[in-house]
Amino acid sequence: MDEKGLPGRLPERDRPWVMRTYAGHSSAAATNALFRRNLAKGQTGLSVAFDLPTQTGYDPDHELAAGEVGRVGVPVAHLGDMRALFEGIPLADMNTSMTINAPAMWLLALYATVGAEQGADSARFAGTTQNDIIKEYLSRGTYIFPPAASLRLTADVIAYTLREMPRWNPVNICSYHLQEAGATPVQEVGFALATAVAVLDTVRDSGQVPPERMGDVVQRISFFVNAGVRFVEEIAKMRAFGALWDEITRERYGVADPRQRRFRYGVQVNSLGLTEAQPENNVQRIVLEMLGVTLSRDARARAVQLPAWNEALGLPRPWDQQWSLRMQQVLAYESDLLEYPDLFSGSHVMTALVDGIVAGARVELDTVLEMGGVVAAVETGYLKSALVASLADRRRRMEAGSDVVVGVNRFTETEPSPLTAAGAEAIEQVDPAVEAQATAAVREWRAARDGAAVDAALDRLRADAATTTNLMPATLACVRAGVTTGEWAGALRQVFGEYRAPTGLAGAAGSGADVGLATVRDRVAATARELGSGRLRLLVGKPGLDGHSNGAEQIAVRARDAGFEVVYQGIRLTAGQIVAAAVEEDVDLVGLSVLSGSHLAAVPAVLDGLRAAGRSDLPVVVGGIIPAGDAERLRAAGVARVFTPKDFALTGIIDELVTVIREANGLA
Length: 668
Hints:
Elements: E1 18-20, E2 22-23, H1 28-40, E3 46-49, H2 52-55, H3 79-85, E4 95-99, H4 104-117, E5 126-129, H5 134-140, H6 147-164, E6 168-169, E7 171-174, H7 176-180, H8 185-206, H9 214-220, E8 221-227, H10 231-251, E9 265-269, H11 281-292, E10 303-305, H12 318-334, H13 348-370, H14 374-379, H15 382-400, H16 433-448, H17 451-465, H18 472-481, H19 485-496, H20 515-531, E11 537-541, H21 550-561, E12 565-568, H22 575-584, E13 589-594, H23 599-612, E14 620-624, H24 628-637, E15 641-643, H25 650-664
Parallel strand pairs: 1-10, 2-3, 3-4, 4-5, 5-6, 7-8, 8-9, 9-10, 11-12, 11-13, 13-14, 14-15
């Protein structure tokens, strides 16, 4: 019998998902070369990683950009950079995802302008701008403007693309980072759908889209989700997402066409779940997480991008990205997965799991809506506090061993890994000259343009921002005039202002019956008495533009539970601000958290500042993704301790902080 005719098989293999790797570093030209190599290897879409200055609306020569240029993505400061990024790549034939949020309108305008210069019709452009600002206030931290102004920019992009770029997904409602920030599956679904409701309500109420076209808006809303290693639960989560999305769009927005109500999502599997210890285990984690979003045909991802096995160590090399791409290709082309209808239809186990997540997520969604919507839930700190508390629970389970992480808190005996034997050569290295080159290049760009045209374009942008006018036309005019990323964002900062999101620490729960913490608490109290102070004071600082604050917040919560008085002012601080806070608050210890790889620039700047302020005696510790060689350099510069992801036991870290304070003060 012909194998293809077996009962239960589809008449034809299902179409594979779009296969991407998340890529971008150092410069537009270098990233363009990486894109071309990946496309030649069978990648079917592009996923652009922008560096932190670009994501937060700064040019490479801004003070806050120091040490961050080209490090976690590609710097794009103006139209010339975008031209170089896509040189030789026909945008009309490409499906491009751009992980960009606060300045999403700006980057889309740059992209559309380059496509037009290539002679392409904008109606052919296919791809996605992430453009979900809400989760930036809760996790990644690359927000710029207050929530209401940010949602206005999102709505303007949606209305514009509906008219001019109908194949473009103007927003990716992004639950990915909610999971990394601690969200349970129920919270991830509920909070993400609350964000989707806020976006759709803003579009509907803006008056830019006729009521009869709301179905077209819904059809272009996509989601970007996280897939953890509990892949059965992840399958249920995705099916629950689809069921609730269908319900909301039908009942709240009156979308009658089921094709327009389809839940469309892309995925990256859980990068923060990857481990520095025994990093080879990350390969099987990535495969299992990929299965969670591909096994269920009725809830299968439309696009998948996988991290590399060594992302907990640093920036992946092209070979590492190739390995992740080949994982997707083996599943899609060698296995028989795409030959069958949904494997879970009629499963009592899956139905019960889905029903449970749907019920819980509906409660979370209703709670947020009753508060006045997701903006109110952000501004009151409700959402951030819920995520910090959930992540604290997850960390406690891991420390207690009830949640097993192989190679980290169990089965830690290991042979030396040949994959990491090369040391620093096992990850991509960013040339320190990149930042200087980018700084010189943006200054040359500014000097060569028509200053009057730039001023006129920025004046128009500010004037339109003060009204309800759609800002996309003024933004496109800025692109054509040669305005830079920092100038565009700076003009809108003048109108909208900047925003500081709640840290969420106040609502985080304590550590319960942690026996080890009681001992540390006694040491904290005893040390404070010996120093003649009421309480030990810890400053937790996030220098530079790195907004991934989960680790810093968990340290702050555990230190507070141990009896420290914690000073934490949130993300995106200059070295000068951190030094000023340390001196003014008269702290006993400064703890710096740097996950972007900019530690060799950010940390010495703080050390130099403390010396200049006459506080060279104040001990400094650092935590982050820091290679062994860099850790040695930091210690030689004066850092008392360096903590990396392998140091997962928070209570032990806090105990070590007490030891650092005692050593710095000559206590036995």
